[in-house]
């Protein structure tokens, strides 16, 4: 009974306000932060203030971990360094942005909110997550964002998606790579190559490309190789240690792309793509040599 009453009190917005202050203070240990995240189930619409003062709205029913992180920690709650870099790149004359493996849409929503003149295309094949994404698009009233329940890969037709059979949280580690995660349900989803999508939708040029497809990022680049050669987009790509480095090199070594690890201390130039063994900073920035000088001038590199 007392436990139930305590939970009800914690779910009051005024209580959450003070808990959030404590969560972000030096008094709250990492263990306590974890217990807060796991113990207070958020439900409804949450608002997060972005660095540019715009408000990002996210819908959750306690299953969306990313929404919870944004609620408790604000913009620093999820992939802080990569998101801040992404926002700078959105300002860097980017007109057409692709978000492949969009999850509930954080990157896509931020890009769309940044400038209504930008055209944003997002892809999320997991049915449960796609539903959340659509709600978030509607909440933020984004007309310049198009989202597709499609897997971008190296062939057209259909593909099997292996979705972790988790019931209490959204299955964010779903992959088209069999065996990537244990205890998965197989779901057939639409598949298309990046090159075919660009041709079908008459996309003139992709400026910025973000890829996070759980160990199949190289298949995305393989199926979009003609687009890479033609458009030379700037790429933010997840790299998983021991899984994708060699395959990414086989594709990118045929181009003039340069590699930068997105680390706590900033962008670290790399001769070889090497995933973070701690799995803390998993994202890389791939930049065509022709755009290096421009990014340096813009103080991004």
Describe the protein's architecture and organization:
The chain is of the alpha/beta class and 301 residues long. It has two domains: 1-40; 77-297, Rossmann fold, CATH 3.40.50. The protein is built from twelve helices and 13 strands. The chain has an eight-stranded mixed β-sheet with strand order 5-4-3-9-10-13-11-12, with helices on one face. A hairpin with a 2-residue loop joins strand 11 and strand 12 (266-270). Helix 5 (80-91) runs parallel beside helix 6 (106-114). The protein starts with a helix and ends with a helix.
Brief sketch in words of this structure:
The chain is of the alpha/beta class.
Reconstruct the topology from this structure.
Elements: H1 2-10, H2 13-23, H3 30-39, E1 43-49, E2 55-61, H4 65-73, H5 80-91, E3 96-100, H6 106-114, E4 119-123, H7 127-139, E5 145-148, E6 150-153, E7 157-164, E8 184-193, H8 194-200, E9 208-211, H9 217-222, H10 225-231, E10 234-238, H11 245-252, E11 257-263, E12 266-270, E13 283-288, H12 292-297
Parallel strand pairs: 3-4, 3-9, 4-5, 6-8, 9-10
Antiparallel strand pairs: 1-2, 7-8, 10-13, 11-12, 11-13
Major sheet summary line: 8 strands, mixed
| Distance between the amino and carboxyl termini | 56 Å
Number of domains: 2
Q: Roughly what fraction of the amino acids lie in strands?
A: 25-35%
Q: Choose one word for the global shape.
A: globular
Total DSSP helices = 12
Record keyword descriptors for this entry.
single chain, 2 domains, 8-stranded mixed β-sheet, 3-stranded mixed β-sheet, alpha/beta, globular, Rossmann fold, 301 residues
């Amino acid at each position: 009974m007392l436990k139930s009453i305590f939970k009800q009190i914690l779910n009051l917005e005024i209580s959450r306000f003070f808990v959030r202050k404590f969560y972000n203070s030096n008094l709250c240990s990492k263990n306590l932060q974890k217990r807060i995240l796991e113990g207070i189930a958020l439900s409804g619409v949450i608002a997060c203030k972005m660095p540019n003062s715009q408000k990002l709205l996210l819908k959750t029913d306690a299953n969306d971990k990313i929404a919870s992180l944004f609620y408790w920690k604000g913009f620093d709650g999820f992939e802080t360094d990569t998101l801040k870099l992404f926002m700078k790149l959105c300002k860097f004359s980017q007109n057409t942005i692709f978000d492949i493996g969009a999850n509930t849409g954080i990157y896509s929503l931020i890009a769309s909110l940044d400038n209504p003149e930008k055209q944003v295309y997002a892809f999320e094949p997991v049915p449960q997550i796609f539903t959340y994404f659509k709600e978030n698009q509607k909440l933020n009233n984004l007309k310049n964002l198009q989202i597709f329940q499609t897997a971008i890969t190296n062939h057209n037709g259909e593909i099997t998606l292996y979705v972790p059979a988790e019931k209490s949280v959204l299955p964010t580690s779903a992959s088209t790579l069999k065996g990537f995660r244990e205890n998965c349900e197989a779901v057939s989803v639409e598949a298309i190559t990046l090159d075919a999508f660009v041709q079908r939708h008459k996309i003139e040029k992709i400026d910025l490309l973000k890829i996070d497809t759980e160990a199949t990022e190289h298949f995305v680049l393989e199926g979009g190789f003609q687009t890479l050669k033609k458009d030379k987009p700037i790429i933010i790509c997840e790299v998983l240690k021991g899984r994708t480095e060699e395959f990414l090199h086989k594709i990118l070594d045929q181009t003039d792309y340069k590699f930068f690890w997105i680390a706590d201390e900033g962008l670290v130039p790399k001769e070889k793509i090497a995933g973070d063994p701690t799995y803390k900073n998993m994202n890389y920035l791939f930049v065509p040599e022709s755009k290096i000088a421009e990014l340096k001038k813009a103080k991004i590199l």
